Amino acid sequence: MSTARIFFISLFIAASVSAIAQQYQSLEFSLNAPQAEHVALVLDGKQYELQSNKDGVFSILLDSLKPNLYTYYFNVDGQAVLDPANPRTMRDMGNTFNYTIIGNADADLMCDQHVNHGKIEYVWYPAGNNKMRKMTIYLPSGYDTNNHKYPVLYLLHGSGGDELAWLELGRAAQILDNLIAQSKAQPMIVVFPNGNMYQDASPLTYYDDYPNGKIKWSNRNVRLSGQFEASFGDIIKYVESNYRTIRHKRGRAIAGLSMGGYHAMHISHYYSQLFDYVGLFSPAFSTAYDPVTTNTSKAKLMFPTGNDMPSVYRNVEQDLQKQFNPAPKLYYISIGNSDFLYPENVQYRALLDKHHYTYTYIETQGGHTWDNWRHYLIDFLPRLFR
Amino acid sequence: MSTARIFFISLFIAASVSAIAQQYQSLEFSLNAPQAEHVALVLDGKQYELQSNKDGVFSILLDSLKPNLYTYYFNVDGQAVLDPANPRTMRDMGNTFNYTIIGNADADLMCDQHVNHGKIEYVWYPAGNNKMRKMTIYLPSGYDTNNHKYPVLYLLHGSGGDELAWLELGRAAQILDNLIAQSKAQPMIVVFPNGNMYQDASPLTYYDDYPNGKIKWSNRNVRLSGQFEASFGDIIKYVESNYRTIRHKRGRAIAGLSMGGYHAMHISHYYSQLFDYVGLFSPAFSTAYDPVTTNTSKAKLMFPTGNDMPSVYRNVEQDLQKQFNPAPKLYYISIGNSDFLYPENVQYRALLDKHHYTYTYIETQGGHTWDNWRHYLIDFLPRLFR
To answer: Left (φ > 0), alpha (ψ -120 to 50) or beta: where does B258 sit?
Structure first.
């Protein structure tokens, strides 16, 4: 076993050091709301009170915003209101909000630039029980005009996400296009499955899964049942049968955020010889609490035990031993220092350290946010398939 | 020349006659808004005042809604508010609103059903001036598992739309999946280009086309310049080089709504021997007014004239003579009887009648609405490639 190779890097500090030319910008947000008493801007979760002029236009000028993607909506006397001047929206679970981008540095990677673009496909693959399930595929620019075989990254969403989340909230297509165009990432196929086995596709798809507009969220017993991990072979089989892929460990990567990190961890040890690159972004490790209600009082590293457990979870430590012998080329963990999953991440790293398993560790500021996950993806992609 | 073949059919009357079992349903809309004075539901443009209970929950029960897709939002003291209980949204130009579907009859065709699904691709094709432009492609179920050649429908959006409009507002993928699964439509490839030559992709795409969240709409001189029609060969070339298509008039259809009807009319006479199926849904025919500002006082049939006109518009009547000799298998026009474009449609049909050109005419109730266009698509698709 090699010695643990651990890096502590704050992406944000690194970014501000490397980009002296990074321009802070001011941005005015305004809303015409003559009947409103209070209007607030909710920008990435922070609330700012707006001031009204005599015509009932509420506004605020935020200066020194650093280049980044910002999500926002207005709170008008308790109601969430979209910005009528901005048609750019994103959906997170059941909520729709606006976004805006202040360019420069990493934020430019999150915008469509005038470079060669990959192709996005929404496909349906055959899963067990004669079901067709939906997933999203990114094919890099050039895929249709050559005969190369490409490496594949399987990129998994979190609890509450679906096969659209990384594309919409994560800006994955833009980040991939730009990093590939700049030769910072290898051209690769990226597969975005739906990790919720209680649905065949995003809850926007099947109307009968979703009567009267009410969200049918599943409880953790269904979400974290081991079914998704155990059936991951269906996805790999479809991808490797339908696309020109490198069918070898060195051509496969798997990564995910939160619940997707949990999935990526378990899939990569269960199929212990399939992936040479593993990425766990703000990963959950314990099933002892519900990631949605986030009862952190019970948050400790606890793999399911007992004979009634699904096979995926039955031999985690033995599987890890197989997975790390020989070690994957990259086993990458990133998390924010205020993430509610931080404590169990400490314990998981202690487990890896105990066995001298090699991994790369990135600790940033912030918590369990898409802002962090977009930056983790930007940091992770250049490390793949080298 | 054959005699004009004209059908007057109200789709809505036809639907209610054929579906005695069609169930009218009641639907309750409610919003928790304790600080609001007035809350209205705006349902497909109609406003309904909501009543509040003592806890500040505003609600209304609408009974006898007929099966259909409904769009809505709440008006809370003058502000548009999305339904927090319903994550299903659609965007029309810059506006985002909710939708809900009451199933049965045609409305079931607008829902994802558990049938075989086609694949959606977002691709970039090379246009003139070394530009890459974005379009959407629908490939029918089975395309990837056989070697058939497929017919192609080019389906064009209206003014203010883009390559996403028919998929999002038009429910085209669901309608295609369902009609093909029921053997009511032939399996076909459907191509959704972006008809706005002043943009390479939807305004959601390029950030520099769209600074500070402000929409950059172009004036009619740019939109209706003949450039899109003249360059349509780029699109056909890309599609016929990259997909297994029937490269013959009998395997090509073109249709569009409003400005897209204008485009389909001009493209199909300019490339007079390419299309055996033409569909004009609520088409614009005149360029004498701006379809966005809809100054109907100037609405009369007026093809551009003069030597400074783009070649596409220079010989419309001569081109039509070529197009109708021999006549296409289907030349389909549909419009609502309260559409602001109705008067110039009367004049265009008079022109066709004067020359005894054969066409199919569908007149419905209603105006210039996506509700009509979804139903026109359902009526049109089964007529293609027979």
So the answer is: left
A82 and A127 inside one domain: no
pLDDT in tens, A44-64: 999 999 999 999 999 999 988
d(CA B139, CA B117): 9
Are residues B216 and B240 both part of a single domain?
yes
- Omega prior to A126 cis, within 30 of 0: no
Q: Is A65 on the interface with B (CB under 8 A)?
A: no
Count of beta carbons in the 10 Å neighbourhood of residue B236:
20
The total of structural domains in chain A comes to 2
- Do the beta carbons of residue A164 and residue A93 sit within 8 Å? no
B296 secondary structure, DSSP code = G
> Block means of pLDDT (10 residues each) for chain B, length 386 residues?
38 38 81 96 95 95 91 96 91 90 87 94 90 96 95 95 96 98 98 92 74 56 79 96 97 97 96 97 73 45 62 87 96 97 93 96 96 98 97
Both B340 and B360 in a single domain? yes
Measured distance CA(A181)–CA(A187) in Å, rounded? 9
Contact assignment for A76 to B80 by CB distance below 8 Å: no
Handedness of CA A55, A57, A58, A64 (dihedral sign): negative
Please tell me whether residues B169 and B77 are part of one structural domain: no
Structure tokens at B212: 């500070």
* CATH number for the domain that contains residue B176: 3.40.50.1820
Residue B6 lies in a domain: no
String of b and e for B351-362 (b: at least 16 CB within 10 Å)? Answer: ebeeeebbbbbb
A93 CB burial (10 A radius; 0-12, 13-18, 19+): middle
| Together in a domain, A304 and A197 | yes
Task: Give residue B29's domain range.
Answer: 23-103
Nearest to A100 among B89, B122, B213 (CB): B213
Strand partners, B245: B150
Interface A–B counts its CB contacts (< 8 A) at 145
Do B357 and B213 lie in a common domain? yes
In the three-class reduction of DSSP (H, G, I as helix; E, B as strand; rest coil), residue B26 is classed as: strand
Instruction: Give CA separation, A15 vs A20, A375, A381, B50, in Å.
Output: 9, 10, 16, 51
**Residues whose CB is less than 8 angstroms from the CB of residue B73 and which lie 6 or more positions away in sequence, other chains included:** B42, B80, B81, B82, B83, B97, B98
In a domain, B16, yes or no: no
Is some CB atom of chain A closer than 8 A to the CB atom of B69?
no
What are the φ/ψ torsions at residue B99 (nearest 5 degrees)? -140, 155
Q: A258 and A218: one domain?
A: yes
Alpha carbon distance B16, B169 (integer Å): 23
ipTM of predicted assembly, 2 dp? 0.86
Q: Give the closest-approach CA distance of A355 to chain B in angstroms.
A: 45
Domain boundary among B103, B125, B144: B103
Q: Are residues B131 and B88 in the same domain?
A: no
Alpha helix (H) residue ranges in chain B:
11-18, 106-109, 165-168, 172-181, 220-223, 227-230, 232-242, 259-270, 316-323, 342-354, 370-380
Residue B264 tokens read as 């389909």
With an 8 Å Cβ cutoff, is A101 touching chain B?
A: yes
The number of beta carbons lying within 10 Å of the beta carbon of residue A147 is 6
Q: Residue A14 domain-assigned?
A: no
Q: How far is A122 from chain B (nearest CA, A)?
A: 5
Let me know if residue B98 belongs to a domain: yes
Nearest to B375 by CA among B193, B179, B190: B179
Q: State both tokens at A19.
A: 């980009």
Domain boundary among B103, B118, B139: B103
Contact between A80 and B84 using a beta-carbon 8 Å cutoff: yes
- CA-based nearest residue in chain A for residue B118: A123
- The model's pTM: 0.89
Alpha-carbon dihedral of residues A269, A275, A278, A283, nearest 10 degrees?
-40
For residue B90, what is the domain's CATH number?
Answer: 2.60.40.10
